[in-house]
Queue: 3 jobs
Job 1
Amino acid sequence: MANSIRSGRFCNAALACLLALSLTTCGEEEKNRFQGYVEGEYVYVATSEAGRLDKLMVNRGQTVEANMPLFELEHKNETAEVEQAKAQLEDLKTGKRKEELDVLRDQLAQAITAGDLAATQVARDEKQYKVSAISKAQLDNSRSAYTSAKAHVEELRNQLKTGELPSRIEQIRAAEAALAQAEWKLSQKSASAAQAAFVFDTLFVEGEWVPAGTPVVSLLPPGNIKVRFFVPEETVGKLKAEQAATVHCDGCAKDVSVRITYISPEPEFTPPVIYSNETRSKLVFMIEARPKAEDATLLHPGQPVEVRVNE
């Protein structure tokens, strides 16, 4: 009988110890477990130009690769401006057209003939003047006509020489700048994905008018998914950037490893999305953590999670 009582007391003591150990372990684990949710930083894709949405090349829920086209606005006018700017630049680089040069060459030939006649007339009048056959005024007129003819020939030669050369470098640079501007405006009529991402939403349908600067597509790259959780004042001082943590969520295929990227310097009351009647009046600090890119797709914005901070 005494042995039985001693045995029962031993079992009760052992159970008490195990229970105490269990409660201590659970309490320690609870201190490192915090409630939170998944959040996404969305990329809203827009252009600086307005226009009708001609082509929407993606759908909600689709995954796109980097540089994949997303949408295209109508761009008939912008295409015409580019073609016009190209033609003007080419014209400046090649100089005058052949027909214009041919006209200058004919005018130069006529001016040379007129100059030869003027030179012959001057020579004749100088001989006549020596024998007093003509007046000094007539000789001066002949000489003036010859001088004018020579100047006209020189002028046409310079015009022909200039016409055979490209335009001035300043004009060409201005035309190049105009072409670059026209090409940039045309490029603003379409948009592509800057990186691989999930198409979270499309905000217009084909045929609608899109104002300048208004997003057409919202994307969620894997690197823009983060977890926000909240810790009490007595815990925040133990956390540091790059500290590892594990995220658990109901229905997830596996837990996800994350690293702390931000610790809020200011406290706040427990956010409505996670508070209970017991915790809503407590001050907490917001912590942000990010998963690896390959694990980010396991988490979904708005999803409630439990975060366990690793020691």
Job 2
Amino acid sequence: MMESGFRSPLLDFFRRGDVARDVRLVAAQGALAPRAHEQLGLLVLLISDPDPEIAATAEATLQAIPREALEGFLARSDAPTELVEFFHARGIHPGPTPSPSADEPMIDTEPESKPEEEEEDSTSVLQRLAAMNVPQRLKRATKGTREERAVLIRDPNKMIAVAVLSSPKLTTTEVEAIARMANVSDEILRIIAMNRAWMKNYNVVWALAKNPKTPVPLSLNLLPRLAEKELRTLSSDRNVPDILRITARKKIVLDK
């Protein structure tokens, strides 16, 4: 299995080998990942897929990426060494000018179906998503609207929920709202807590700390980052685990 040197929660599902064939085929077509790093990571991984059709499809998608775009990506300072070496072996080298952004896919195999600004009735969103299969919901998780993300973050298929966090359209406000949800997978909350950019936002930290679904060790680690006002709120919150409430009380006393 070829490694790209780039890791993400979505890519980890593929590395573990527990992704259904139809989903792997969609990823091999380049239609799943919304960002350059993740798209290339999936394609490089899937060219060694045991299914010949998937491996061939991933190879064809890689070959279809414009050379100039690849050279620009490889010239970026955040291009993983493994990817640079992989394409070097194929005769493709970093270009003279780095790509200014990696927030778009290297090759867009599926144009946007509707603008982000267009809002829908929540019932119609639910009905439409319920009629979709797993690959279709995965695409909407990474490329869909805010309303679709709000539904799919709670999808019983963990890979779909995780894919929402890979969407380049996801805002910090949405992350804060997700961190408050008590009906999402604890894996989602862990992923948020591991993202340095999101954790620079105090509201996200506070939302995770007071979420009863957040794993206790993670919540305890967040206490030192909370102001006294939030610590006092936690110390009397009957919805959070006892140990968190008691530790918050002790911290208030110690900090005085």
Job 3
Amino acid sequence: MTEHNSDTPDSTQDLADRVNNRSHRPNSAAFRDFVASGWDRTPLNAEALAAAGFTPARRDAVSAAFPGERLVVPAGGLKVRSNDTDYRFRAHSAFIHLTGLETDSEPDAVLVFEPEGDGHDVTLYFRPRAGADTEEFFSDSRYGEYWVGPRADLEAMSTMTGIATESSATVDDAITKDLGAISVRLVRQADARIDGVIDLARSQVQADLETSEAGDAELAQLLSELRLIKDDHEIAQLREAVAITRAGFDNVVAALPKALGHRRGERVVETAFETAARSDGNGVGYDTIAASGNNACTLHWIRNDGQVRDGDLILVDAGAEADSLYTADITRTLPVSGTFTPVQAKIYDAVLDASDAAFAVAADHPNRPVKFREVHEAAMEVIAKRLEEFGVLPVSAAVSLSPEGQQHRRWMVHGTSHHLGLDVHDCAQARAEMYLDATIEPGMVFTIEPGLYFKSDDLLLPEEFRGNGVRIEDDVLVTADGVENLSADFPRTRAEIEAWVQSRAQDR
């Protein structure tokens, strides 16, 4: 990686500055004059973002919920990965949803709703493009254009987002002015610096801490619940994410022969998926799970350092993130050899039946109100009955399904569904009555993902079941007529899965 330079340090040099001691930075007056000259500084071309036609309605809903109050929604700042290198930036989901900005823009930006009349004036504060004659341009390896590329100027950003813009140099004053006379709500834990600015200002006017924290929580809740129903733009982006994910899974299936011969075959699988996710989208929406054999029974197995053995099942839970930052979330469980063993087939079919039962309940919503939790309950009925048939439940399926029972959950401790969107577990701050207890409605997008996990050290299982984990996960759009399986293009039945693995392996 390219290094940037510094002058020779002395013993009084701040620790924070010492990361620049590894080489020499030119600092002569001649250099400064020369580096500042001869650059084409024509303003960058800009056009409205794809989401710009949808974000005003989102902001209007937020404004209507909190009349007369200032609302502060930070994008977040860069996070250090190691020493002076940062993680790739990803803004807070609420900020993305309200601005329509994509990919790696804009660290340190803040969206501010300032009360005005019956509504709000909304301003986007961000760090605009610096002049070529500034120290930032050539010297700042974190923000400088010479190092990380050009940023938009104020006018271009306003054109892209449809929001009035100001330099982030003035944001502290904007979010703290008249704090004693106006209520301020903040999306907390998005930007630690902004949290500190607001907290200090609140302490100076002796604001009630408990009331302030409750107000902040209500804002986070509203912003989360606002995403429960997806608009047309969001649905289109989720379709794109699913399409990229399909390409990634095709890569996975094609890579299985190579994975078999590698000491860390799971990472061969992981890399195969992520090649498509990064090539065709922004990357992965969450850490890929590539879990072979008994590792598939660890629900969030992301080490992916195990071998892939002939005869194993490999559970791949992966989702590509589109450039808009909407993510898919798909799981398929594949027989590495191309054929399920009889026991593996029995487990797989049980999970598939549970998935089909959940789909059927969700699809019934045009005929009656269907609660979100009913999708899970339908899957659990099948899981409990199959476990009873397998002879592993210590009680009947009916007893296990009672609130006092739940023994079947030993082999599936997670829920069957979660909302999906900008976050893989979207709308996570929503109230229970808006999530688990809500009636499903057109525009909702969620997963259906039952599973069975029979760990190799589970002594309550027959030995032939141990070391096998199966999950089937699809992404589901609720429509006026029922539901649409957004991942319907993925092989799903046992016969389809076997044909997929066998045909793709032959292609190699």
